[in-house]
Amino acid sequence: xxxxxxxxxxxxxxxxxxxxxxxxxxxxxxxxxxxxxxxxxxxxxxxxxxxxxxxxxxxxxxxxxxxxxxxxxxxxxxxxxxxxxxxxxxxxxxxxxxxxxxxxxxxxxxxxxxxxxxxxxxxxxxxxxxxxxxxxxxxxxxxxxxxxxxxxxxxxxxxxxxxxxxxxxxxxxxxxxxxxxxxxxxxxxxxxxxxxxxxxxxxxxxxxxxxxxxxxxxxxxxxxxxxxxxxxxxxxxxxxxxxxxxxxxxxxxxxxxxxxxxxxxxxxxxxxxxxxxxxxxxxxxxxxxxxxxxxxxxxxxxxxxxxxxxxxxxxxxxxxxx
Length: 322
Description:
Layout: H1 2-12, E1 15-16, H2 17-22, H3 28-46, E2 58-60, E3 68-75, E4 84-86, E5 90-92, E6 95-97, H4 100-112, E7 115-122, E8 135-136, H5 144-159, H6 166-188, H7 191-222, H8 228-249, H9 260-270, H10 273-282, H11 287-298, H12 302-314
Parallel strand pairs: 2-8
Antiparallel strand pairs: 1-2, 3-6, 3-7, 4-5
């Protein structure tokens, strides 16, 4: 019910982007950003082959910093995220709330049950084309580059989405957004911004390499026969080491809670990106081929799809199924 009420409130606040741009009382900065959105939306259709529909043709001011707050949870001695199931999205590794207080209440309940928990604000989400998603005020505090990249990311979910496979869906959308923003900046003359983005991506990858190594160490720990008190102490030590290492490779990249839930959430959004980049390389950067190959992956069983993505990650000569 809270999700239904939240979605209805969001939809009721929509105004056509063209109307906001023409409104003499609308802030000039907002209008200029929405003009960028208009150009990027057309680019997403013409150059990225993303859906042509009414999504991101309107604007909504929610009068808050985030559209929803996601709750992630994982057992104290596991990196397997708790999952929740929904009619449209299928089973996913988070639960979203339109109220921060409601999200925190759920987090406290899960903590009382012994879970590692983290709550994160989300500036945007996709309804997978079921509704005409608006551009939100929560997206406007980003740079132009991140605003456009998020637009591409959310539209990618409308292009392809597999119920119950959050890691595939989010990594796929991230990969589409990455190639989309590279082409957008090349077309708009944002070479300096492209270089800065590549630098940030390199820092992000360096941090993810450190995180992956730490996750492997934690998995070994959780599979061991140590008693709970010793395992808890060793877990604390490994997480402290991870925080130190991340600060060394990418200062400022990560702040806040470090626990199993946070680590599991990062795997969902980043874990398979390199596999999708490999598919794009095999397709010689042709998006029609890329979409055909990723759609073929969606037809596989979950185990077959995971195994194929693993091979793509580690061996450049392995091709996705046709």
